Amino acid sequence: MNIQVIMEYLSRYGMMFLFLIIFLEYLNFPGLGAAVIMPAAGIVVAKSGINFFVALGVSVLAGVLASYILYIISYYFGNPILSRIYKRFPKTRDSIEKTYKYIERYGNKGVLVTRLVPVGRTLIPFVAGTFRMNILNFTVYSTIGIAIWNAIFIYAGYAFGYFFI
């Protein structure tokens, strides 16, 4: 999905599409990168007069709900899923193990920081669920990290759209 298509759908369907596309991005659907989706959303928000904080809230809600789904799936089925991932994609083992060790070392703050690292942010719900991290701690620190990440990317597009387009 290219940026023109994303912007067209965002313009046409507004917050509903924003929620859907960010929800899918946080579910790790291939081809949906935050670096494209969220700045495009910010541009549309700036041009359409939608309140930045409303768009940010919708994006955070989408990210948190998708993260819950991945957390719950990995809580119950994490080890079999990880075994399959390791067999099919052996290079991911290192990233997953690094994420786990980081969380093990830094605890809740590690969740927040990992949410701000491109590869780590996509792995953290799997790691937290598989290793049965406390869901309340996961929620609080993950939500803060999601809010920071989304705010940076959406605001980048918002500022660009507001000042240059």
TrEMBL record:
<dbReference type="InterPro" id="IPR032816">
    <property type="entry name" value="VTT_dom"/>
</dbReference>
<feature type="transmembrane region" description="Helical">
    <location>
        <begin position="140"/>
        <end position="164"/>
    </location>
</feature>
<keyword id="KW-1133">Transmembrane helix</keyword>
<protein>
    <submittedName>
        <fullName>DedA family protein</fullName>
    </submittedName>
</protein>
<keyword id="KW-0472">Membrane</keyword>
<keyword id="KW-0812">Transmembrane</keyword>
<comment type="similarity">
    <text>Belongs to the DedA family.</text>
</comment>
<keyword id="KW-1003">Cell membrane</keyword>
<feature type="domain" description="VTT">
    <location>
        <begin position="36"/>
        <end position="158"/>
    </location>
</feature>
<dbReference type="InterPro" id="IPR051311">
    <property type="entry name" value="DedA_domain"/>
</dbReference>
<feature type="transmembrane region" description="Helical">
    <location>
        <begin position="52"/>
        <end position="78"/>
    </location>
</feature>
<dbReference type="GO" id="GO:0005886">
    <property type="term" value="C:plasma membrane"/>
</dbReference>
<dbReference type="Pfam" id="PF09335">
    <property type="entry name" value="VTT_dom"/>
</dbReference>
